[in-house]
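Lab meeting notes turned into a lecture example. A postdoc, R.K., suggested we walk through two folding results consecutively so the class can see how the record format repeats. The first protein's sequence and structure tokens come next.
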Amino acid sequence: MDFHDPMNFGNSTIVDCALNHDDTNLDTSIQLNDNSNLIQVTLDCQINDQKTCNKVENTFKLAGEIINYALVLNTPIIVDAVFFPMGSSNVLGGAIASRLFSITDEDNTERLYPQALVKQLRLPISVQYASSDIKARFNSLKDWYFPDDEGPIRPDQNDILNTVLHELIHGLGFFSSWKNYIDAELQIPTSGLTPLISYNSNITTELPIGSFEFMGFYETIFDKFIIINNDGKQDKLSTLANELNQFSGRNQQFNLSSFNNEFQNSPQFETAKKVLSLSTVKNSLTFMPKGTKKTKDGFVLETSLETYAAGSSIVHVDFNKYSHDSDFLMIYNSVAGVTMNELIIKSGNRTGSAIGPKLLGALSSIGYTLADNPIKSSTISISVSNTFSLIVSCQLFLYIIINH
């Protein structure tokens, strides 16, 4: 499954892994890196301001260094990045895996793996890769604070390094497939959530309005580790995906309206409604890293919003719990007026970067190899002065750690 637009998760295409055209691994097509950098970025900066374009380029380099510091990568990760006017200054940007591969897991369940991860796993299979692993788009209309800007960040500015790193982590595989696909496409109120809908159709992009063959619901590898907090039982969310895949419409022809009608009249629709309900109950869904058993060791996902919000609910971590914690990076709402490095220091600088200990556990669980870096105790806290000179010193200190 290929994704074409980071700002529209529904804009996708089902593709054959054995395509014979130019879908090759373009590890040698490099623009913003040297040979030692395993995060390789091709940047299309669509503004007439070379100074700002250089700052964007440097931001991606820093984000790549942070990922390189946290993970052991054996194959370059290719990022297709565009910096351009996105119509409104309220939009920050986004990133998404360029291609997902359906792989049968050890529990005999097919799940979708992001291309960046598949390349690191070096599976004994031969596949054709898309030309990039991650597609990233960021808004040039936003009044960004850049890491090399002089002076402190203003209260109305967002730190672009924090946003870029956040989105690249999504592209690496930190995302759930559970969403309101049908309701969003039909532009009707959200009534239930499902995993990604696989279909066979002559229409090659987005969930088709015209005729298609329904082929099943597919979770991502991230979804495998989500548990439902239900009186300490820790039921897996994947069990609900299995229930949905009992829908009798599999391998039948539908248009979107007829599919929606038949699905809503099926016993399985109660499961979709249940997941929608879970998405708005605080602490209801937790990512449990591989090897952990206690709920307190899990990564609580964002289910505290009063109504389900596509792009925020489930695919991020709980804002109230982690916005001042060392695992702040994957909250859904970027905090204005504070730099990423200030957040790192205020939360104790436990891992030497913005990729906190629970996020490291999540990346390790889905399949990445972690670098052997120390993690400080959660009881450590550091008092930070608000003077610009100390902020600059702390920024330099963190970059030195990452480059060490």
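The second example is placed directly after the first for contrast:
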Amino acid sequence: MKLFSMTLRQALIVNRQCCRQFSTSRIRQSENLPSIAPKSFIDTKPIWQDPELYSKNCRERNYNSQSDIPTKIAQLHEEWLQEVRALRGYSERRNAIQKQLSRAHTHGLEEEKTKLSQEARKLERDLAPLEERETWLREEKERLAAELPNLTSHETPRASQPKGIGSINEPPAHELSDSRNHVHIGKVLNLLDFQRAATTSGRGWYFLKNEAALLEQALVQYALKIAMEHGFTIVTPPSIAYSHIASACGFRPRDPSTQIYNIAHVKEDQDRDSPILSLSGTAEIPLAGMEANQILNAADLPLKVVGPSRCYRAEAGAYGQESKGLYRVHEFTKVEMFAWTVPGAEMDAFNSILSVQKTILQTLGLHCRILEMPSSDLGHSAYRKVDIEAYFPSRCQRNDGWGEVTSASICTDYQSRRLNTRVENPMGSTKKTSFPYTVNGTAVAVPRVLAAILENGWDEKDECVRIPTVLWPWMNGMQTIDKRKR
């Protein structure tokens, strides 16, 4: 009897494990995920407890197609509860059978033992589909929850327009002509070449030449210097990442085929089912992935890193006049900041990132406005987002001359839950581990800042550009860009 009862229990456990392993392997196979892919730990409880809050949040963020997901999750949760109750009933019946079998064995009731054994085997057969259904319902809740954007900060305007919250430097003393176009300036000073780049790579690509190439490196070095002075540790990240890492970070464009460069398999003998690799649109993706599947110590937080990288955006050529010049391009150099913090301390990291951004733009002499971005402008992962826009004379006919040059976002635990990044022994927590909050922001996006420097520093009379003083140490002794002095 003891042998039989152990066999029954083990069979039920093995069956449960097989169902879960089959479900997990099925999901990984369908998504081409490697075995090292982070396991997501999305908390569905707040969603099924208040589905209307999450539906409203989707609508406010312009994710209308996802607004019915919270209700589906609530319905799935009710079905899941029914399955759990049914499984509990089977468990209670199994325990009762074991007791009856023990008694029958003790008293030598062979006929009753045979009858109970048959019932136990039937119980095992009936249990398998119930457990598979329970596993599917649980994982379907998590899958749908992953499609929902983050909740939205109370600081975020619920509208389509941003709210001004500050400025950097005074506006120009006199109105600057829109003839101060960096494309024209780049041609006059032999700094930019879009024509040859179009022949080489296509529209939306460019060559930086002469002082413009030096300016790129100067901006990178200066941004790294300021970030490191604010406590950021320098990291050089890869430019290629698994697509599932990008998705976990919240990069879920409405039309991925037109916005992300995926790397095709070109070798005939290469595994066609291998995970998809993509060119990173921002260093935020590999920097966030750097701590995937890791457990951080709360004493080490905030952990703040800054990294230069090349970034790739496939959608650059789809904006007509907006895409001319350096403002919207397919490939560019950017210095990105990223931080992990304990929940409740994210504002310190956020303000540190904003301080770096303000310092860089203020010392470059650019006139900027600081904006609290509206809910409709937030991506999947952002809980709150602040953009800084610089004044471009060439854009005075579009958006009154303003153009985004930096962005900073708080993502709460959206990314860490999807990347399985944990923090150990967080203060004030009774749990052994929890999920840290992540914060990210641009230190400098080189092409746009370079364009702003060219346009705002242009001296039409002398046909030269004044180089910001803070960049002189990296400009080989040059203080101006003047073709006549070469």
